[in-house]
Amino acid sequence: MVIVLNQAEEREVALGSGVDGQLWIPTAEAERVSGWSWNGKSLCKGDVAVPIPNGKDDDFVREEAVNLAAFWRHMEKPILSSESGDVWVLGAGAGERAADLHSLQAPDFTLPDLDGKLHSLSAFRGKKVFLASWASW
What span, in angstroms and rounded, lies between the C-alpha atoms of 38 and 30? Predict the structure, then answer.
């Protein structure tokens, strides 16, 4: 089992395997974990398709699994794993991060209040919100 973190959520993959810098995920799970689906020739997200580089089939696809780490590196996106390979972080590329900054829209997050009740920023969409943060360092 592996745990995959992306910008939006944490996903567990029971049949996933993270060994030697490779993250093999069942093709049926690829979209749920990363937002990218395998169509038999390339990974797709919306109108974007990323084909397998010529001659590299075994590095990217084996039987019913795709190597998300290889695809992430091929798309020049940051990826990080724990030393044991059981936790992976799929980062956003520089272009995506720059577009998010230019949009001036804060990413959604959820935090508890002093009573432990959870509040999400998205619940206040369209309303003015004052956020105050503090750190001891």
Answer: 7
The amino acid sitting at 77 is K
Q: Is the pTM of this model over 0.70?
A: no
Domains contained in the chain, number: 1
pLDDT in tens, the chain (137 residues): 888 877 767 778 876 677 778 888 888 888 888 888 888 888 899 899 988 888 888 888 888 888 999 998 998 888 888 888 888 888 887 777 777 777 777 778 888 889 999 988 889 988 888 888 788 88
51 is in which domain, residue-wise?
A: 2-97
- Inside any domain, residue 91: yes
Number of Cβ within 10 Å of residue 67's Cβ equals: 22
Pairwise CA distance, residues 119 & 59, whole Å? 42
SS3 call for 67 = strand
